[in-house]
Amino acid sequence: MQFVQLLRDAFALLFPELCAACNRALVHQEKRLCTHCIYNLPVTDFHLDKGNLAARRLMAHAPLEEVSAYLYFSSGSAVQKIIHQIKYKNGSATAELLGELYAQQLKDSSTFESCDVIIPVPLHKKRLRTRGYNQSDHFAKGLSHIMNIPADCKNLIRITHNESQTSRSRFERFENVKGIFKVNDPAALTGKHILLVDDVLTTGATLEACAAVLLKIPGVKISIATLAFTK
């Protein structure tokens, strides 16, 4: 066993795992993010304020129970680097870790604890094949693991492949997501309180399009949580 540990230590010296935020080498027992970056994440504490900025952005357009986001997103920030790594550099494990960290906060909220199922915003199968994973699925799995709420990554699907929202105006984002989502088995969600999750809340167009489809199911209530929030 000691020899195996020596080999692992030697491998770590030659090929160190780097922090997704600051790019420094991780030390023993650190995973995906270094301790310094975890403790300096720009957390929003939105889950403690029902009238937070994210809620005000979305609740005017849909009857939602609660809206929250874990981190503030700004251009050039550590959070932007983390999101980029999660989406484009095989960062599924980082997304899951952040889901677990956020779940520790959401457990303080009775509204989020009352959710019956966690549903991530889906990718179209074409983009899923290209990327190999849906980062929101892994964020949902991290939340699920700590909150003990099942994650359903298959019932809500994206039926139309559209272009990225990144460079679009607010109006164009809303037009771009109309009618692109579908629920495979509405009966499985009847009467459920759904926690709908995504990576970044910008205009909210994609989340609103998902919520509109889910709210057609009898008795459904929806809360929303995202990994990051863009002011």
3D structure, described in words:
- The protein is an alpha/beta fold and 231 residues long.
- The protein folds into two domains: 40 residues, no CATH class; 189 residues, Rossmann fold.
- The strands form two sheets. Strands 1-6-5-2 form a four-stranded parallel β-sheet, sandwiched between helices.
- The model has no long low-confidence stretch (mean pLDDT 89).
Q: What is the 3D shape? A: globular
Helical fraction: 25-40%
- CATH architecture label name of the largest domain: 3-Layer(aba) Sandwich
- Helix vs. strand class: alpha/beta
Order of helices and strands: HHHEHHHEHHEHEEHE
Beta-strand portion reads 15-25%
Largest sheet: 4 strands, parallel
Summarize the structure.
Helix content is 40%, strand content 16%.
From the structure above, extract its key features.
231 residues; Rossmann fold; 2 domains; four-stranded parallel β-sheet; 10 helices; 40% helix
Itemize the secondary structure elements and their pairings.
Layout: H1 2-14, H2 35-39, H3 53-59, E1 66-73, H4 78-88, H5 92-106, H6 110-113, E2 117-120, H7 125-131, H8 135-147, E3 156-158, H9 170-176, E4 181-183, E5 193-201, H10 205-214, E6 221-230
Helix pairs in contact: 4-5, 5-8
